[in-house]
Write a structure and sequence with these properties.
This protein is α/β, with parallel strands linked by helices. It is built from 6 helices and 9 strands; from the N terminus they run E-H-E-H-E-H-E-H-E-H-E-E-H-E-E. Bound molecules: 5-O-phosphono-beta-D-ribofuranosylamine.
């Protein structure tokens, strides 16, 4: 493992948390030089919270209810993350669009995984969009988050073929297998200092 201090990582979740799980597993295996300092959920019933608790990772429930608008919600979220000296934020099935408040607080330090080959099929139901369009190949994309929806600089992608009898569910399941490979790999590269930027092009250093 690298000699440098582990990167302080926070993961934002809303649901099942399978991507959270693979990152936890890779950190525990000593393959990612990071320390997961908190898992933040906007829903108290997210199964991802249980996954974090099982691994002794502090959890925070941050619900929209108390806040007047998305900016106010994000301002409080930035404070939570800054209090923990977070250096990298992962969106892992976090079902809220971030505002400029969050994006500007962590430039090129928020990652998302999207279940399509961006820039194709941004937004919700990307797998269904791919089926309806009739593409032969789709996949997943790890990207930095900018102020647009799924428009940030692309870090890694993986291609998944679309089968004739695919449903949204079967395609999503096949794409998730690739998500679980490329998302932790992108995190590993970041934490090893192997990602640099040239405009919106991401360069992976060897
Ligand atoms: C993933 O399929 C990802 O593509 C999308 O949200 C889903 C989260 O799944 N952004 P999980 O909570 O990590 O299992």
């Amino acid at each position: 493992m690298a000699d440098s201090a582990p990167v302080r990582l926070a993961v934002l979740v809303s649901g099942n948390g399978t991507n959270l799980q693979v990152v936890i597993d890779r950190i525990e295996a000593g393959e990612i030089n990071a320390r997961m300092v908190c898992v933040v959920s906007n829903r108290q019933d997210a199964f991802a919270l249980k996954r974090a608790e099982q691994h002794g990772i502090p959890t925070i429930i941050h619900e929209i209810g108390a806040y007047a608008n998305r900016q106010a919600y994000d301002t409080a979220l930035v404070e939570i993350l800054r209090n923990q000296d977070v250096q990298l934020v992962l969106l892992a099935g976090f079902m809220r669009i971030l505002t400029d408040v969050m994006v500007n607080a962590f430039p090129h330090a928020i990652m998302n995984i999207h279940p399509a080959l961006l820039p194709a099929f941004p937004g919700l139901h990307a797998q269904q969009q791919a089926l309806e369009y009739g593409v032969r190949f789709t996949g997943c994309t790890v990207h930095f988050v900018d102020i647009g929806t799924d428009t940030g600089p692309i870090i890694l992608q993986a291609v998944v073929p679309v089968e004739a009898d695919d449903t949204e569910e079967t395609l999503a399941a096949r794409i998730q297998q690739e998500e679980h490979r490329v998302y932790p790999e992108a995190v590993r590269l970041f934490c090893a200092g192997k990602i640099s930027m040239n405009g919106r092009r991401v360069r992976i250093l060897s």
